[in-house]
Design a protein that fits this description.
It is built from 8 helices and no strands.
Amino acid sequence: MLLVRLLQAYATRKLVIRTYGDGLAKNKLQLAVDYINSHLDQDIKLTDIAELLGVSHYYFCRLFKQSIGTTPHQYLIQQRIERAKILLKNRKLSIAEVALECGFTDQSHLTKHFKRIVGLTPKAMRSQ
């Protein structure tokens, strides 16, 4: 039940979109961000998002970075790490299960990105 509430709170959280120049139109940027956030547990292909927006892969990546200051891939990894932080609070899930729920291929993939972004391993964060 706690996990459901945490995921609902995370999923309904409004993202404040700050623009950093002449990037994507706000509605297209919101569509891209919503797509990423609702498919975090899946293998997201940037070409699929670009196609959804009706632009080329290269153009999408360039405009996305101009819009929010980070590449779509970096944004995707950051969002997966944020979801992992929430899921790690639920001790019923193993770290490997958390990794899969967040769209990482395995536990080591999660750990690599988690340590780079958070500064701790998922296990160390869970034990805090």
